[in-house]
Amino acid sequence: MPKHGKKYLEAAKKVDRARVYSPEEAIGLVKETTFTKFDATIEVHMRLGVDPRHADQMVRGVVLMPNGLGKTVRILVFAEGDDARIAEDAGADYVGGQDLAQKIQDGWLDFDLVLATPPMMRVVGRLGRVLGPRGLMPSPRAGTIAQGEDLARLINEARLGRVEFRVDKTANLHVPIGKASFDAPTLLENMTAFMDAVKKARPAASKGSYIRKVVISSCMGPGIKVDPGLAQALEAI
User: Fold this and answer.
1) Architecture per CATH, 75-160
2) d(CA 55, CA 83)
3) What's the pLDDT score for residue 28?
């Protein structure tokens, strides 16, 4: 097993591994145990009571973080004609068609979000093996295929803090909720929005306990267990 550094070990001493914290306590503690020189990302990790091998138990959705994520999102849009102009006017970083597809096939991946118009899926479809494993493939279920004003709205939402989430093969979710520089109420508000989105995304086929484990951590910092019941009880003001 890899050895942790001195700073991590000092931070970990502040966390009681046998205890589950309230969301408010956990957020205060994750800020206290962040030790990186850069502005670390704060993430929520969640174990769900679903079996992702079954299509009717897949959990995925989108949440718009009310306070953003504190990071610059590089947006790529596959569009042409009027939709390309709309994407450019809305502030997309890269707009194009076959030219962008070829760059991606050649190994270029300097972007964080991919959107596409329906007509351009004929081009994007060939990139499934590259974009799919990275969670970047546009799809109707993820709400990343649009045109016209809906395309402009998606670009604006991405700038404000739009986050897609999808359960992985081990029934876990991993989602950023902000930066260590955010104050505690700001992080709590973003966490609340995420919890609400996950609850709404519960599949009908899910039986028994749905949200089984919640952990919050900073980049490179120790994990802090959150009481699942209190986390689910969070409600937006």
Assistant:
1) 3-Layer(aba) Sandwich (3.40)
2) 33
3) 96
